[in-house]
Amino acid sequence: MKLYCLSGHPTLPCNVLKFKSTTIMLDCGLDTTSVLNFLPLPLVHSPRLSKLPGWISKDGTINLEKELKECAGRVFVDSQPEFCLPEKELLDLSTIDVILISNYHCMMALPYITEHTGFTGTVYATEPTLQIGRLLMEEVVNFMERVPKAQSATSWKNKDMQRMLPGPLKDAVDVWTWKRCYGMQEVNSALSRVQLVGYSQKVELFGAVQVSPLSSGYSLGSSNWIIQSHHEKVAYVSGSSLLTTHPQPMDQSSLKNSDVLILTGLTQMPTANPDGMLGEFCSNLAMTIRAGGNVLVPCYSSGVIYDLLECLYQFIDSANLGTTPFYFISPVANSSLEFSQIFAEWLCHNKQSKVYLPEPPFPHAELIQTNKLKHYPSIHGDFSSDFRQPCVVFTGHPSLRFGDVVHFMELWGKSGLNTIIFTEPDFSYLDALAPYQPLAMKCVYCPIDTRLNFHQVAKLLKEVQPLHVVCPEQYTQPPMTQSHRSDLMLELQPPPMPYRRCSVLNLPFRRRYERVYILPELAQSLVPTEVKPGVSIATVSAVLHSKDNKHTLQSVPKPPPVPPTKKRKRVMEEPPVAPKPLLSGAVPLEAFLATLQKHGITEVKVEETAEGHILHLQAEDTLIQLEEDGTHIVCDNNEPLRTTLRDLVLRFLQKL
Amino acid sequence: MNKDRTVVDATFVSKKGESFFVPWMESPGKTAGLVHNNHQIRCVSIGGQSMSACFISTVVSSRAAESSIISFALKLTGLVAAAEDGFIALQETSVLDLAFDPQHWREEGLWEDPCVRIGWIHGFNTMLQHREAFGFFVRADSINPLLQLQTDASLFVASAANQMLTHLLMFCHPLSSGFNETEVDNKSSSSSITGLKCPNATETDQEGAAVVTEILEFLKRRMLPKEPSQFHQSQQILKLLASILSQAGPSLQNKLLLTVGESLEELVASNYSQLTRPLMDVILAAYSSSCGDAKVPDQIVSRLLSVMLNQRAPSDLIHAAAAFLCSGHNNRIHMEQSACILLLPVDIITSLALLEGNFIVKDHRLSMMEQLKSKTSCISMICISLKYIPRITLMDASCQPCPPAVVVDAVLSLLRLCSGLSPPSPAGCVTMFRNVTGSGKVQKCALEALSALSSSPEVKVMLVEVFTLLIEYLNHPDSDPTVLQKSYQALLKWIGVCTNLSSITNQLKQDLTQVVRKRVCDMRWEVRDSTVEFLGHLAGLPACSTENGGVCNVSQYLLGGCSFTTPLLVEALHDPESYVRASAVSALAQAMTHSWRQGAVPTKEQAEIVTQLLEILSQDTEGFARRAVLQFFITWFSSHPSSTSSPLLLQSVRSVLLQGSADLDWEVKVHTLDLAELLMDQAFLGQHGYTKGLESHPAQPHPYAVTDKQAYTLHTHSGNHTLSSDLDSLVKQGLLSVLLSGLFDCDRPVCLKACRLLIRLKDVLLLRPQETTDAEKTDPELNCELLSQGWAHEIRNVLGTEDRTSGTDAHTVTVNVCDLVKCLDLEERLDVLTRSSDHFYNSPRSLLQDILTASSAHAQQDSQLKEEVIADCY
Fold first, then answer.
1. pLDDT digits (tens, 9 = 90+) for B79-90
2. d(CA A324, CA A333)
3. What GO cellular component entries does it have (chain A) (predicted)?
4. Does residue A494 have a cis peptide bond before it, meaning omega lies within 30 degrees of 0?
5. Mind listing the pLDDT tens digit for each residue in B328-342?
6. Looking at the DSSP assignment, which residues form a beta bridge with residue A125?
7. Which of A283, A318, A484 is closest, CB to CB, to B518?
8. Which CATH code fits B499-641?
């Protein structure tokens, strides 16, 4: 069993598991942090961005002023943002049989894997994962395509050039593999390969293994996966949460007794408690509005935003924010808000029961109804006429490099009254803000990451007791910034197996059993013998038939009646050799000695060994080794004695 | 006899008396005296001995009586028999033998009931005031059942048995050792032996000696546990021993220590953790006696104390050291030893070398480190340590292991570790660090310690560090509401103590402003409430000195004063949580007091606030906020100099009185009467006949009520106005309506207060100086109007005004105030109101039931209920 690790990002994993002749890709997350190296894509012309000076090395030898721009001491690539793809060279992607998706954040690289690679397999995901994943992909494509950039910067990627660049561009890895965003056609083609599954539904893969998604409690339709054969079980845990938010709670018990547990997607903010962060979010929001400022919340169009809106729904009145408008701007805002209301079966119990009342499960429906929350596909159109300040705006993209958020950054960045509140944990807020410096607006960082923290995961692993744990190497040491916090790492016995980008792990796990079916007529012909109470055995001669990883024992076909030939005659003359009987049982020492004595062998010296006993028949100069699983008679050139002794031993054993 | 206990018991008896005697007696008037105190009860008992005896014998021999009635009867028997003649009278009817025979109650199947057992003990205990009673006790062989009850399953019974055994020993010892009044008086003030007649019968002496010996032997025999199940028994014995030692005179103590000394030494050496605290109580009780009295074998006590502070497991050492520090003894060696032990856990966790070079606790360091690795014992030891650390800094400097500022530094370090604000020192153990990281309990204890440390000497240099850390705590997203509240409290304490705030940098001030601004918008109402309270308290602090050597209002200096505070508080008036609204009202009062005192003309902003407050009073659905509004006006009225009476205030007071008296909440009504009282005080103080009675301070507030700790200043009457005009203006303000409606209110505290105020008004009206004519006394101009509804209707009935007002509007009747107050028979009303009381039930079960109910509620892990309990506790 092997694991190929194509992504080094712990929360955006992409691993391939080879198990029992199947090749299974576990998630295909897209590392979008690479976009932080690029200049933002403004929706309307930004004089500030267009006036940024080009970069020329200090000694003037390298001139990349067309490709690189300098802002507040940092250098950015002036080109369409590019993403860091999963490793494509480690194995032939066309050999992948299936891709299992655990949540909509972990499928953003799907078009890069399924298109133009020769991939012919199937993608399995739950319905909300597919639908919301599609929305997120559509949104990114839309953000990119509506502000096309003619120029594509590539010179800076030249190894010799890159080496001379200032950080962090200098330290960016595999820049040659970075790719522009896919288009809608590729998205549609990739998603057409998705086959929908429900929680606990068992899907057979070529008869070799069965895969089954389990609720992971992190987002709508998010799942962990169980990959099992008859005798082996691999659990894949990705983005899970034990907090009570909107999704169905995590199914922990089904993860029990796995041989290997692949653990990814733990919280990126182990020291930030989501409840505390939510509190910070609300109080900072209220504080800004009271002071007459605007609040900008860069966020994804699905996920935590539902919880934020629910929290605000309760908070609005207590903070006297009843008259403040809340805007949600995204090309998929409407679909996202509506999808959340129709996936009732994937929601937590409280929300499910609301549907029967009938009431919308999420309170944002009421916010929309009462006009407190308004949503728009973009800043153009209706929004510009409805826009009132002070207000709260939720919009993407959280990297601040593309999407409507870029416009609000340009609009509100100059006033200290306004606040930007980061709630998504995927991007460093300092890096995200770098191309907007100098910035007067207040900045609050309250990342809300509901995924498992180290304390919870330790408890979970104690409960489900996997034999081996495989995890990204980042989880096996404390975070770099808090090296003293040894509580922020996985400490397990045996220690977890760490992986990094491009690792190929041989999982410490040997298959010992295989299930074989026996046909009824063959079974009928067997003569079992009881070797000990409750255990019977029988010998069988049969033909083993293997197809689609299913093994069946069939009766030996009777030889076809062939015309008698000489050769045939000769064969018929020889009686068929019956297989030697199998022996079972143990030789009891005392009884055996008594039998020997009866047969005149009296001078026996018994020596105890680690395995059993050695009997030295002194007169006969013969040794008998009695062991648990064998008996040896060593006597030189005395065949009659050997035969006698053999027969005496056989008296105590059962023949099958 | 213990004074507190007497009150409780007497009330209990009075309630029972009311409940049970009234149907019994032919004339209820005869029981009226059965109230208030023992003395009266005794008088009545003697007067009505036959009646009591009849009651007691009926109950005692009844097979159908309830256990609570039997319990009462037994206590009553004790009260009656406490006097010798009562005792003789009861003995004549043989009722005593039956009542105090446990076997009798066992046969009835009632001894199982703790009510009966506790009644038996209390009855006997009360009765044991004279030698006849003692003789009866001995003859009835009651010592054995009493000793058995000492380890009773009911904690109440066991505790009462301990009290009685102590009392018995106090009683018997002088009997057996020759009566020495001086000794008894000196040491046994709480014993009921005072007033005991000097016994002279030799028989009694012998009996006393026998009882003393039996009790001492019992103590010695049962003290050492032979198996773990006997720990409870040992604990009880130790409690009894501690109680006796703290009350006994030197001779009894000598005798006691000589008898049980060996057992004590054995117990101390045996290292039973469970017995550490009761053992320390015993040793400290003996130790306090040994000070200054050479007769007591103080060598034993000193040895025991040394062993307790030296040779026990770390967690026991901490308890022993804490107990010693609490006891207030000033033995230098032991004090230093205790201080070092208590500082050791903090020293180890913070690695701050608090005890560097100190050899006293060197031997305990390793074992303490081992203990600190276990989470439970780590948190428990750190919390005890933190609780007592402030005491260490207040000790004599020569006993202190390190300077107070270093201790403050250690507490700050611990707080940083707890919240993950700073890395642990490399020398520290990771396990210990993990134990305290994120522990809310340690955070709370450390913040309490930090608050207490503010009053230690030489710590003011730490102000900036404390300030910085507390702001970090207030800013921390994960701080729970209680931690935030305690951070605010600590901040206030330090600001209050440090009069010079010049070291607070502008950055810190800015951080504080920012964090307060944020917390006042917090999602959790508890946090908003604490923040609003903080703003109020800060505004109420005295002035501080600043960096330019000037003097400035603290709130002004740190937050920019009213321009920052008032808008936040006004915003909080609209908070959805009533507690926050109430706190905002109180905080506004505190913030505005300064300008009121100076007699400043109210600004437009203040006038708007008053309008909002009147709105709260008339419309708020919760009592807390309305009560706070009343308190606001009380504070305003009492802090405003009368010479510059503000029209806004007078105008508001009229509305407040009108709305407050019509409120449904009795506390609002009582506060309205408080305000009315202030009005009266202002009008009449200095007038002939007017007394500033006990009511000059507002009644004790309800525990939830928002209180204003500020003292009320009353302004004496200027003398420029005549009484009539004063009265007239008061009537116009609506004072009379408030008082009269209060008088007929359904809540007793309101009636009582109104009645007392009316009596004072009546005194002013009717006890005018001699020169005033009768005509003036019944001032025909001073009238008030009565409607025909509610309380006014009641008054009309009392006055019979229907006949006298022919020709006027049938709905409104005008009456003369002087006539009115004369007709109301206020003194009798006051008498009735004072005598009645609210229901009060005392039984050994009730408290226990409460505890059990509460614990079972917690056991259910019903988080919502738990939250409610927490909210209530908050």
1. 889 988 888 888
2. 19
3. cytosol; INTAC complex; integrator complex
4. yes
5. 777 888 888 899 999
6. A196
7. A283
8. 1.25.10.10
